[in-house]
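quick one before i forget lol
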Amino acid sequence: MNLLKKIELYLKSFRMMVVTTEKEKKMFEDLSPEETEKLFETNRDHYTWLDVRTTMEFQQGHIPGAKHIPVDQLEDRIQEVGDKNKSYVVYCQAGGRSAAACHILYEKGYRHLLNAPGMGSWHGPTE
C-alpha cells in the first residue's frame, strides 16, 4: 500500500472516531467494552473476531482465536476475511482503525459487522 493510501486510511480512521454520519452508523454497530466481553464469554464461536492492528500490536496480545489482518492490508487481503454472510467483531486498539475496517468491509459486501472498542479496554483473556 502506498503512502498516500495509508494517509487516507488513517485520516478516515480518525474522522470516524470523531464524526460518524447516519449512513455510516448503518454500516456497523458499535459495542461497549462490557458488550464485547459478554459476547466473547457467551457467544464467541458465532462470530469471527478480526484484529486490524499492526503485527507488533497483535503479537503483544490479542483476543484468543482472532484472525489478524492489519487495516492497511485489508483491501489487498479481503479474500482472507471469510464468508460475507458470517458475523464479524472487528477491533483495534481504540476503535478508530476498526471503524475504518468496518467501512471497508461494508463496501466489499459484508453486512454483519460489530465494531468493538479495542484492546485498550479489553479485560478478557488474551493470547
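fyi Residues 91 and 98 are 5 Å apart (CA to CA).
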